[in-house]
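Ticket #4471: structure export looks truncated?
Reporter: QA, pipeline team
Priority: medium

Steps to reproduce: submit the single chain below to the structure queue and open the exported record.
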Amino acid sequence: MRRLSQKGFTLTEALVAVAIFSGIVISTAPILQTALKSATRMSVDADFSEELRTTNTAFRSRIETAVYPGATVKAHGFIGKRQSMTFLAMDRAQQDIRAVKLEFTGRFDDKALRLSTITPSGAEKKETSAVLIRSLISAQFSYYGTEGESGIYKWHDLWPGPNPPQLVAVEGTIERNRKQQRFRLESAVGGSAPYICFFDPVSRSCRGEL
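Actual output as written to the record:
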């Protein structure tokens, strides 16, 4: 009877195959690592862009409804500072006035852009607060318009009010996964023009347009 011969790899052939495979893995590892980092970076950028779009929508929805109650009610006018702004906003659906405050708050690793709204509810006031952007390193507001009778339009770091500026912007630096990115949000105040009204500070409501 003929004995069947058994064929296989010799030890030398196996070592050569392992060496070749190791060389392929070593040569392709940097490419795979770079691709993984690129994919992670794209995911972070996409999340950051989506967060900015959501924040910009909330930011503009408040700024565009700002109202100017009249020069006689200075306490309720538009007051702009470097790290905060306060103003009145008209909810045309509910026909009521809301006091709005946007501010850069927090300390150390808990800095954020926060939106606070005070809505009158009968004799009581209801305050709500929400964070628009977290993990901020810095943020500063600026205001575009003309002050007094100068007639010169420019950007200001402070806006004393009571009348609102034409444009409001907030810019700063945000950190995500140890990566810093700059951002800027900008909006017209009160749409194309402020809503000027007879303002009743007791009921916090407009009694008709001027």
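Status: closed, not a bug. The export was complete when the record was re-opened. Leaving a note from the reviewer for reference: DSSP finds one helix and twelve strands in the chain.
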